[in-house]
Write a structure and sequence with these properties.
seven-stranded mixed β-sheet, alpha+beta, 43% helix, elongated, single chain
């Protein structure tokens, strides 16, 4: 009887460990796909709905602004021209068009999922800057 109880305990512990390992692996794969990037300077934004994605820029002024936003945890409109991209969302903001703004007069406001759900509109119809209200949660350089 005692050995059966030990066996059940070991089996339950094994199931918990395997489940946790699979969950951690899945979360890492999901994070990597959402934050896919091509350059060594990239930031991770989190929009007002809690979705994340990477933004890249070669512009030193924009980069310094992103770093400062991360340090201050200030929420701003971050965006650029939407282009197709092979990541979880199917798009990214074109790196040479990244803009950080308090007010967006000439661009449209959305969120990451909203853009992802209607890429045809954002790429082919709107084709100007789109912004998401975001904070910077990670800086990589």
């Amino acid at each position: 009887m005692k050995s059966k109880l030990v066996l059940v305990g070991i089996s339950a512990l094994t199931i918990v460990i395997i489940s946790f390992t699979l969950w951690v692996y899945w979360e890492n794969v999901s994070y990597s796909n959402k934050t896919k990037h091509e350059t060594s300077f990239w930031a991770v934004i989190k929009d007002s709905k809690g979705d994340i994605m990477a933004v890249e820029t070669a512009n030193p002024v924009v980069w310094n602004t992103l770093v400062n936003l991360q340090n201050n945890q200030t929420e701003m409109w971050i965006g650029g021209i939407v282009e197709k991209y092979d990541n979880h969302w199917g798009f990214r903001f074109r790196p040479e068009t990244i803009v950080v703004a308090e007010i967006t007069v000439e661009g449209a406001q959305s969120n990451i999922k909203g853009i992802s759900d209607d890429l045809n509109y954002w790429i082919n119809v709107w084709s100007k800057e789109a912004y998401v209200l975001s904070i910077i949660i990670e800086i990589n350089e």
